[in-house]
Task: structure prediction
Amino acid sequence: MNVDSCPKSEAVVQAVRSNNWPDSLRAHIDRCKSCRETSQVASWMARMAESFESIPGELPDPELIWLKAKINRRSQLPARALLPLKAGGLFGAAGLSLLLATVPESAWNRIQVWQPVELSITQLQELLVATSATFWWIPLAAVLLFLFVFTTSEV
Result:
């Protein structure tokens, strides 16, 4: 208790605990600021104690709570570590999509250039042979990489 406390503050605390208020003590609380504050604090503490008593069961061991929190944190670490890889896969897939989106337009432009010239099968075969193998395997590899990234991220 502080220096300004009233000698009747103990009686106020007992009255709050027992919920038995004599008239003389009620009259004293109206006049004494210290006892009025003591009554408010004691009432608040009593309500708080009642609310804790209404909690069913016992609280678990703090070490068990700490262990569960550590296990939960450790289980989230791999997902957080893979986040940059997933973001890279997403950006790679977006870039590949943009790259592949230009392929039909490029092919159409080449067809438009060839259209006036009568194309024979032999000319098309020569064109196919003349095209570098790199032109064909890079889009195929990109599609396979795209499929690999998104099928492994689903697991």
Notes: The chain has two domains: 9-53, 62-153. The mean pLDDT is 78. Helices lie at 9-18, 23-31, 33-53, 62-114, 121-130, 133-153.
